[in-house]
Here is the input.
Amino acid sequence: MSDNKISKVVLAYSGGLDTSIILKWLVDVYDCEVVTFTADIGQGEEVEPARAKAEAMGVKEIYIEDLREEYASNYVFPMFRANAIYEGEYLLGTSIARPLIARRLVEIARDTDADAISHGATGKGNDQVRFELGAYALEPDIKVIAPWREWDLNSREKLMAYAEQHDIPVDFKKGKKSPYSMDANLLHISYEGGILEDPWAEPEDSMWRWSVSPETAPDTATYIELSYEKGDIIAIDGKTMSPAQVMEYLNKVGGDNGIGRDDIVENRYVGMKSRGCYETPAGTIMLKGHRAMESLTLDREATHLKDELMPRYATLIYNGYWWSPEREMLQELIDVSQKTVNGKVRLKLYKGNVAVVGRASETDSLFDERIATFEDDEGAYDQKDAEGFIKLNALRLRIGAKRKR
Here is the structure.
């Protein structure tokens, strides 16, 4: 514990078991006032009950905020302009939610004259890094209290005993241990723990919350049309939607068609490997659609440069560096590239698969049918030019081959 007196702490509070215990623990250990902050970022559960729980525990300052549109507009959509995907599979659903929560924690701390912020992330995971790097980037002198790195309540049994001892109201029935640790927002829902700690074990189909299995998905394909403006989806099937509405709709239609399930062993920033399962219906569709739109409207070398930079960009987000100067630099470059990414993409959703079946852009297409055709191009392309092109590009190969002889 710091020698400096902590009189007020802003806690990222869900109202669940862990954060309810943390609230009481902060009061007992630090003898401080606690301000709670609960964010609705599309987790699919009511957040208002957290107010009653916080009030029952004596909290005077309670912040409950609907941040779905801000999350989608300012965090998820910019990330998808980059086609970001970590280690070839993970669509960063947990990672991209943390910078927004960190920012609001810091802002509320300023508004309430709090001395510190606190979170419920464990000392083994990535989230502690993401929350704290974000907080320090925005408020260099902020004090961060991470109870999981301080207390000895390191098992579910100890947590329940603490809750019972202190009459902490938690919605948790004895003997009904949840098999998974889950985290949800507009972009995804994640599952860890339980049988998933064995990377050989197949998850039970009953685990999945948002999607039907591909085997039981409809036998008839669903077609959707996405309209893009500067790399962002602005309408679906001709209906204008906000970013959050886009994601909510795609989660529903994607889940109904068995789209977005993934089972991954990933490399955590803290050094260990971790197995997790993810449902990301909207993100899976958005990635496929965006790449199709770029394929028609983005210059070849610009596309290749983006693809080279994407793994670095994705790793920055995964590791918690959303507020870093290098991420902001990359974002500027990415956003400039999206000026011409305008048009429509038609997708076919069928039993867990997303297929591109059409793309068009009236204003920014770089596809020239006269040049690309296998029929008579009416002189638009002189095929004889290819001979010199090939010989010039083969020159170094031919020189090298002669030397080897």
